[in-house]
Amino acid sequence: MTDVAIPSDASYPADGFALFPDRSVIALRVNGELRDLATTVEETDAVEPVTIDSPDGLDILRHSTAHVLAQAVQRINPQANLGIGPPIQDGFYYDFGVAEPFTPEDLKAIEKEMQRIIREGQRFVRRVVTDEEARDELVDEPFKLELIGLKSGGAEKTEGASVEVGAGELTIYDNVDRDGQTVWKDLCRGPHLPNTRLIGNGWALQRVAGAYWRGSEKNPQLQRIYGTAWPTKDELRAYQARLEEAAKRDHRRLGKDLDLFSFPDEIGSGLSVWHPKGGIVRQEMEQHALKRHREGGYTYVYTPHITKKDLFIESNHLVTYKEGMFPPIHLDEERDESGEVTKPGVDYYLKPMNCPMHILIYRERARSYRDLPMRLYENGTVYRYELSGALHGLTRVRGFTQDDSHLFVTPEQLEPEASRVLDFVLSMLRDFGLTEFELELSLRDDEKDKWIGDEEHWAMASDALRRVARASGLKLTEVPGEAAFYGPKIDLKTKDAIGRTWQLSTVQIDFNLPERFHLEYTGPDGEKHRPVMIHRALFGSAERFFAILLEHYAGAFPVWLSPVQVVGIPVAEEYADYLADVVDRLKDQGVRAELDHGDDRMQKKIRNHTTQKVPIMLIAGEQDRAAGAVSFRFRDGSQLNGIPVDEAVRRIRAAVDTKALVNTAEDLA
Fold first, then answer.
1. Which of 406, 544, 592, 613 is catalytic?
2. What confidence score (pLDDT) does residue 299 get?
3. Which end of the chain is more exposed for a tag (fewer CB within 10 A), N or C?
4. What pTM was computed for the model?
């Protein structure tokens, strides 16, 4: 990131062009707010430069490129209606209401038109308008008119709408050509680049998808064009190379190629089935987690998948989370012969979360301070009604299993126990080979109707989590407005093998559900006290964590997680019995070993098992049999020859026990 300072001889009032002549500066932060570079400031203002390679600068670059995309579409098709065009991670999109879906040929034409607009060097000029003026100017844009009506806050609940309107003033950005003529306009909060030329050539359109207006299936389906934009062509190419590598690692593709899981249409969208090989990996994950939890003082519980609605009314989920829940199932109604209701029925819901049921386990009997901390743990399957357009392989599903823990603690135990939980989470994730972590502390904001509970408890919980997070030594970012409805939380993020960031575990402090459910314990003073809850999901969900691991390792799991750990491949059929004895010894040691009895030639067998990401292949021929040895072949094609069988078994068992990642001969040496 470029280090830029205000010249010592600057005179005020001044705009950003005068203060920061460096071309890498494309916007300002004035008194904490992002503003266009053309903004005039006084000497008393706190002014910071925003460079194009900073996170804010990249968002501005991408949002400006989205505007150029929209202008290009309307130049080609003036009847296209404008939706929303926000920056997103690594890129941008824009939604359009069009009569026919975009084709690949359309995208090529749009790209050419965008190049022309960029070369024209149009200026982005901000203009404040009233609601009525905005409606008059955008009378032919029905989606924009709807956003104007949502200005008071509803727009914040619409994906991407915050780039268009907010609770304050409305603004329109005019695209002004070199002759001073406005050639295009869009409703937008900004800021933008000073002109289109600064977009340069580090951008590309990527794909088209359908998207419902404002994310609701009840609304019209629009056409969404995705793109990406970077400060330079080299950065674009590096990003495209990362995408190519990510495509090779796509867990949906690997899941099919390696026969791990599937999503049968007959079962329904977002509902997975696990095949035998995938089931082995998942079971290893769960068994390791169960062992670690037992060692950590947790007790395992089970709860049903469905419950009466009253439980989720008491927990407040049916108030704050109803849109994310499946519709109710009406049961137990009884009628007489005339059809009159003699016993009213009850609405049941598939559970979206396990916490209310764990609370009932706590509440089942009287508790003492000596029972605390009480640590409950469950692999509980939950169901959430995700929109069909949001579903994505195993990372976004409708039915998933959370490794859910709920801890009930005294107020004095809260901070040390939260710290202990975070240490446990980090230790567990390192067991799976993840090593790069950072924390995000999600806090409440000033919109009080979004939260339950009193200010004092929120402050206590927030302060405790902040201290725990800082004590970890990990990078910490605070995010107001992203807390759970009942309390603040720490989200743990990790980086995978190709540098992508994933949000994984969460630790949440909750004073409010114990209050709503009237939970109590008897203190050492003999009086009744209210416990505090800690909500903790370590993997997040088994499905999503499995997908992250699958992509992190590109299907080449560490030996302990590999569905098949060892395959025996005889050089010729006459050595099959010798190798079968070695395989049986490995099985006796608890190793998942197989002998390939197939009719294929040895080289084809090696190719097949390499493609299936088997970490260790054992090969035996005459020389090996005569010496009581085997030869190893690894995923990268390297070999270790003539290893005595006893030593081979020891090395393989050690690789499993140490959770080693074995891809090469050196990894097992």
1. 406
2. 97
3. C
4. 0.82
